Amino acid sequence: MMSTSQGISTFTRAAPFWLSLLMVPLIVIGTVYGGWTVLLAPLYGLGLFSLLDRLLGLNTENADPDRSVDDLFWYRAITLIWAPVQFVTLFWAIWYTRQTETLGLLEVIVLFYGIGLMCGAIGIVYSHELMHQTNKRERWLADILLAMTLYSHFRSEHLLVHHVAVGTPRDAVTARYNESFPHYFWRVLRDCPRSAWKTEVARLKRKDLPPTDRRNPFWRYAALQGAMLLIALILGGLPGLLLFLYQAFIAVWMLELTNYVEHYGLTRKYLGNGKFEHVKPHHSWNASHRATNWLLINLQRHSDHHYKPDRRFPLLQTYTDGEAPELPHGYPLMTMLAMIPPLWRRRMNPRVRLWRQMYYPEITDWTPYKTGRHEGLPG
């Protein structure tokens, strides 16, 4: 991979990562004018960036991973301002939609699909970056963003379960080989909140504290989510509350589509006695598509994120095909493909099989990796 670090601290270098802000005026235009303009936000987030990926190609440059956080001001700034920007946009749209009579039902459905896309593809992605930091202010902003999608448990699940157990049967978020997205989605909705709760309770128990202790983050999660629901109800009444719930569902749908793509069919080698190998770059799908990495603040450099979880997004590294498996397209196209299981399997299953041959030619029976039943591993 090429390496570059010159001028990384300048706003000019960071500016492409601010393209997410354009979602806001597009949503405002759709809310005020209705009609075909309600399509602007979805077309921008899903359509335009897929086209730009084709036109701009791949970015294989790697910044110096040892750069100081002081050099990353303009990169961090977009993640720090996004929570208030999203809060105002979301609740203004709920209030305005309740006041106006110019938007028909179909227009409202499409409009709030776009808002859900913003809160999921941008908001949750930014919260993901923020929750990985040790700074309390950043973690609070992550919690606020997640509360706007009623998915606050994601922080506990992601940090305490997913990063520890990725590529193993314990991780519900690792999509299994041949598993369709609808099956995966409902499994994750069922298992992840319970897993997050059990993990936090176990963490408190190790400190001789009960689940009801104030240090259980689920109290904070409940308070923040309850506040968001109350604000939606006050500003928009029952219709406003329903619109809030709808956009939250779309946001979670987009998050879990992304999670599905990131680890589909990839597993860590079982070593016996209940142990798996350490996480390596080849346990996540990598994507170097330039434009979508701008929009998603390098989330597609997911192989390096799991290898070095505390590395801030401008410093995430990309890998060659021999170091980590590469997706054929950026996330927008891949997530759309994931919603059509036969096409998804036709595109991705051969890649998983090639991955197995490349990294684990010694494994001849993959059945335990499909079923999650390894000898000596608790069921």
What does this entry look like structurally?
This protein is an all-alpha fold. It has one domain. It has helices at about 10-15, 25-35, 40-55, 75-100, 105-130, 135-145, 155-165, 180-205, 215-265, 290-295, 300-305, 330-340, 340-360, 365-370; strands at about 1-5, 60, 270, 275. The strands form two sheets. The chain has a two-stranded parallel sheet with strand order 1-2. A hairpin with a 2-residue loop joins strand 3 (about 270) and strand 4 (about 275). Helix 2 runs antiparallel to helix 3 (about 40-55), helix 2 packs antiparallel against helix 5 (about 105-130) and helix 4 (about 75-100) runs antiparallel to helix 5 (about 105-130). The longest helix is centred in the middle third of the chain and has 47 residues, at about 215-265. It is globular and about 65 Å long. Its EC number is 1.14.15.3. One of its GO terms (molecular function) is monooxygenase activity.
Layout of strands and helices, then pairs:
Layout: E1 2-3, H1 11-14, H2 23-33, H3 40-56, E2 61-62, H4 73-99, H5 105-131, H6 136-147, H7 153-165, H8 181-205, H9 217-263, E3 270-272, E4 275-276, H10 290-295, H11 302-307, H12 331-338, H13 341-359, H14 367-371
Parallel strand pairs: 1-2
Antiparallel strand pairs: 3-4
In short:
This protein is mainly alpha-helical. The chain has helices at residues 11-14, 23-33, 40-56, 73-99, 105-131, 136-147, 153-165, 181-205, 217-263, 290-295, 302-307, 331-338, 341-359, 367-371, and strands at 2-3, 61-62, 270-272, 275-276.
